[in-house]
Input
Amino acid sequence: MANRFIKRINLRLASVFKGNHWPVMVWLTLVVLTLFSTLLAEGPQQKVEGEHLAHISQLSVLLVAGIVLSKGTLVIDHFMGLKHTQGWPVRIMKGFLVLMLGLITLSCFYY
Output
């Protein structure tokens, strides 16, 4: 019984990776980048004058911002279907991504 179940799973995985497997690879890339940026953003914790303050260096903020920019670009290009589109739809989406990411990054430096 279990052997049949494992064979079914192997056949399904083989069919996924056999042909057009870019969505799986893009998804795995997004997962790895998310885990890496989470490790960077967690950083060491410090207590300052009785208050719990998360110490995140400016370099780690910039690295996480770069990772978020690359993840956003992957999502816009592959999962929103705008990779082969030219003109204003791509510019609007990528412009919004850069604007929001820039504002969030600036707020981290001036908080």
Remarks:
- The longest strand covers residues 45-48.
- The helical segments are 2-18, 22-42, 58-79, 88-109.
